[in-house]
């Protein structure tokens, strides 16, 4: 009991003091009361400008905080719709620092993506094609990643994949792959056809293989399927492998021609990695129905008989989704 008494007295004292202060407040002189309730200085509105944002970004790039740098980049991109169009374009066109140019380009692309200016992304693509400095071209290409650029830049990617700079070509290929996967999820035929056209137009085998080997072809047209089939005859094994994998996912109406192409190619192909890709394509094109075809191919290359047997075992389960078939195939390969 005695332990709680000091606490109670202290509480009572504080409460009494507070009540006394509240009671005396109305009795304070007018000046003193005014000092207590006087408002702070009025906030001044400030218009958002390209120059102001760019100064902040230049200063922020010196910071050690990656979070702060990301915030500044996001701020410019999200403010793009409210920025003066001509001022933003002029700043982008005269910028010679690749990092800053990429930020400005991303802001212009954001204007198109948000419906404010359909021509802004084309201006970025134009600089990506015409700029002399490959570092600036690469920066402009990166700014269009995971956007609608595949279908809104008038075929720019067919030219970008033939750029003189390997870095620009690889950046373009990365854009195409990520756009198909992350923006369209393989369900937009126009974008998928544009990706195939870019892959076919590329003169760098690594670019062609990267695009075809990582894209979903479930919505491509007959013309695009034909372009991929023609790449089965490429001199580069990686391109042939990527084309074989891409043909495995074509739409139902393209499957018959694709199946004939990969079956015919298997007997003449000498590269083991390409043959494995052809086997996967045959399995994907036929599911359970591909088992007889795989059995007939077993004697063509005895070294790949275990691979064929693995496919036959998985397909015999009659799974109805390709991702489940692939997962089971991978599981079998891991079993000792």
TrEMBL record:
<dbReference type="InterPro" id="IPR016024">
    <property type="entry name" value="ARM-type_fold"/>
</dbReference>
<feature type="signal peptide">
    <location>
        <begin position="1"/>
        <end position="34"/>
    </location>
</feature>
<protein>
    <recommendedName>
        <fullName>HEAT repeat domain-containing protein</fullName>
    </recommendedName>
</protein>
<keyword id="KW-0732">Signal</keyword>
<dbReference type="InterPro" id="IPR011989">
    <property type="entry name" value="ARM-like"/>
</dbReference>
<dbReference type="Pfam" id="PF13646">
    <property type="entry name" value="HEAT_2"/>
</dbReference>
